[in-house]
Amino acid sequence: MKKTPEKKKTGRPKLDTLKVTITELDNEGVGTAREDNLTALVQGAFPAETVVAEVEHRGRTHIFTRLLKILRRSPSRTAQPGCPVELSCLGCPLVSMQYQAQLQFKQQRLERALTALIPIESFSALPVLPAVDTLGYRTSAKLVFARQREKLLLGLYRRGSHDVVDIAECPVHHPLINRIATIVREDVARRQVSVYNPRHQRGLLRYLLIRVSPDNNRALVTFVCHDRDYQNLPKLAKKLIKKVPEVIGVHQNINSSSGNVILGNESIKLLGHPDLIEQVGDIRLHIAPESFFQVNTRQATRMYALITDWAALSGRETVVDLFCGIGGIALSLAKGARHVIGIEIVPEAVRNAKANATLNQLSNCRFIAGDAMTELERLAGTPDLVTVNPPRKGCGAELIRHIVALRPAQIIYVSCDPDTLAQDLKQLLAGGYQIKRLQPVDMFPQTAHIETLVQLVAG
């Protein structure tokens, strides 16, 4: 039964609070406890902690709360809070958890998802590969402009809402990102540049995109605007490059839509270079402002090295790389293969991949813009290796059927979601493949996300 808050003598309602002991973390890293036969969700609380939380909403199966006070601390909690806005931003639910405990949670999260769908004897998960850097590792950021009672905000959406949390310094962002954001915030406020209001669909600035190359400490900055601007943006760009010479290019993207899509279809280079060149292992990559690329470059380098090592190519193989993006995995394998075919549905990413093949002087690569399933059907012959790096929804049953029908000698699967990985592995095992190696990789410290590499061989 829903509790009705009592009123104090002042007439203000008394808080509806719960005192609970957290039993476990859910898949998103949120503390859970049982209360009145419902599951109470307490962001920022860890197992074995007794806490007081304010009830924000009571649903049919869950109680959504806000952490007020920790009465008994978990031994895995850090001595000091990991971030001053962790309970309002909610982007890094594990930021106040000791790192070894984070790795243990991720290992258990992965194994729980897998054993729910595939036999435990069919795999042996290696220990999670820890991150080299647990803070300051994110090399790209998408920050939101907003105004609140005339105050300029530049930060992140509170998870699950459209409320903007002002972020002075994010602990997981590369230090150069934080420095750039500070300078931009100050200059926009000083010049009183208008900020987009989604309710009224007016105002100029919508988002600030920053991409950093940790290899050479250079950055690209993109202002996403509701309209073209010939007055404020050039001044902001010049001031930024003057104050932060590490910024080698400033762009404007026009997004006049009323929806939640961040980027529009039109981009204009205001000053400097069109892209970054990033060294990832032994390959170099053109990374444009709109390119999708791993946000943890150091871990991506280690992951590509693992894939190359597992593939053990002799120079005679044909490789098909599905969801190839800008070509990172395909190009890493190309030096050891006879021929590599990359398939990607985003045309701009394919153009980047072709440019990256040229940059690395690799002539044995072919990149195709198209749907993975459609293009697989058109391929002649049987590839020796198929690599897949799908989005969170996984490959899906139909694509897996097509891959199994090709019967490659081995498959290397790069997953960013344990649940969809389990679904796809179940089908691959049923199709006659065996798991040879399974390596979790911590790409996103302080969060609940886990990346997983799986090598499968034909039985």
TrEMBL record:
Q: Which GO MF term does the entry hold, naming one?
A: rRNA (uridine-C5-)-methyltransferase activity
Keyword Methyltransferase on entry:
yes
Q: Which UniProt keywords apply?
A: Methyltransferase, S-adenosyl-L-methionine, Transferase
Pfam families annotated for this entry?
A: tRNA_U5-meth_tr (PF05958)
Q: Which EC class is the enzyme in?
A: transferase
NCBIfam families referenced in this protein's UniProt entry, alphabetically: rumA
* Protein name according to UniProt: 23S rRNA (Uracil(1939)-C(5))-methyltransferase RlmD
The record lists the organism as Pelovirga terrestris
